[in-house]
What does this fold into?
Amino acid sequence: MLANYNRSAKALSELLQREGVEDSQVLTAIATIPRHIFVDDVLQHKAYQNTALPIGQGQTISQPYIVARMTELLRLAGVRNKVLEIGTGSGYQTAVLAKSFAKIYSVERIKALQWQAKRRLHQLDLYNVVMKHGDGWQGWQSQAPFDGIIVTAAAANIPQELLAQLADGGVLLAPIGEQQQKLVMVIRNGERFTEHVIAPVRFVPLIPGDIE
Ligand code: SAH
It folds into this structure.
């Protein structure tokens, strides 16, 4: 572990606050989670910069700003309890979610990434997370409904199966589009789904079908 990671994580949290993140729970999560354990040794010196980084398998650990902002958006929408994450990846976003909501369900299609993320979360004593190796397009039917659903890979269209797994009053956040992506928020009221476009974003694609 970097000896001075505490200071680096705190500085990152302060930077995100200057960039407009306001939720204190989220800012505290960023200030206390050692992001360097979620990247390869050779990239550790970049772990507290506000940038996405490669994590192998053609995937990336998301930019801290977008991790914090998406988590904050769910909290601002009133989500507190059950959150489904699609695309565990490094597990960093999962850790931030674990410190911001009561219970996290996270689905990843690449077994090696899922296994590594699980180990990291245990290392941080975050036990309110359950993980599944599976296809995120299908969500996690047996644990539905969810108060919040966060997708951290981009799909051409909003996965309908995920909307079906939202609780009444629940909120889905997902990057939608291929070349041009937008972060979209969908709020469920009974059988009515209201869509809001939040901002342009850039994520790796949500892969259809098979798992690895
Ligand atoms: N939040 C993660 C982002 C990882 S990148 C982080 O910050 O580390 C997106 C992740 O989504 C990758 O790990 C990729 O393997 C995963 N993914 C892509 N398509 C998927 C699918 N259909 N089901 C589950 N996971 C998927």
Summary: The first helix runs from residue 5 to 18.
